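RECORD TYPE: protein structure
NAME: Ribose/xylose/arabinose/galactoside ABC-type transport system permease subunit
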Amino acid sequence: MRRVLFSDYLVLCLTLLYVAAIWPFVPEILNPSNLTDIFLQVLPLFIAAIGLMLVLMVAQIDLSATSIMATASVVGASIMTSQDGYLAGSAWAPLAAVAAFLAVGLAIGALNGACTALFGMPSFLVTLTTMMFFSGAAIWYTAGHTSSGSSIGALPPAFLALGYGGVLGIPYAAIATAAIAVGVHLMLSRSLFGRWLFAVGLNPQAAAISGVPVRRVVIATFVLSGLLSAVAAIVYTGRLEAGTPILGQRILLDVIGAAVIGGVSLFGGSGKVSGVFFGVLFLSVVDNGLQLLGLSLSAVYAIKGGVILFAAVTDAVRHRVAARGG
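PREDICTED:
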């Protein structure tokens, strides 16, 4: 039982079992076009979930990921849109817009980290508040930059290529996602900062006594989470061909659920990039399969919520088993 609970490949096996179980009813789930859709759906969600994983590893949580995506999306789009954009028609507009995406993510992440680490506020309350504030701010900002009030379109082709373009048949988004995943994996396994993350998550008091700059580590995780949410927003905006204040509105549960299902402990101190990938893949395949079965959106949400609750309970059981050493 312990071997099953702590297996790195448990979620991958469940994904394969789910596909095998549902295939007789919806054989199109294994069609190449459908598998491509799942692959493209996984990429930005995986990027955002990696950011959340870093925050969870220090026993905190970030609920503002989707509001960061929305704010970055509309701010970046307002710079490069050909419809009265700040840099409309400029060859530098896409580059400036990408810089704006990243700056928004870094700024909101730093705000979350500073409020949590410097003022001792619960990260749940801090990020819930920033989620509400920046979600509203994104809607207000969009209304001031477009007559429709719903989205900012007419984005330059050079930026849209980030959503669907590629080189040698490999999407740019896949290349960026792989680079981020490898970089974070190396950071966790080979760097001093990675060891600090695990130490802070397991026991912040002991880490502080050992000389770990706990507050700076916590702030850094929120900054990285904000940055990766902004990168995910670039991919989503490129695909939607518009900046929208409701970008990512429905994926917050998926981002948190993928990390938890992938073995990232809600109690801090554990997490792997490969596990998060398996979690994202599992949720994406479940979502795709349920939609192919023709279930309503509410039924899909209910089932996914149940799956995530089961994963959270499993995490609690694993935490107890690990604490008992048996």
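COMMENT: The chain has 14 helices and two strands.
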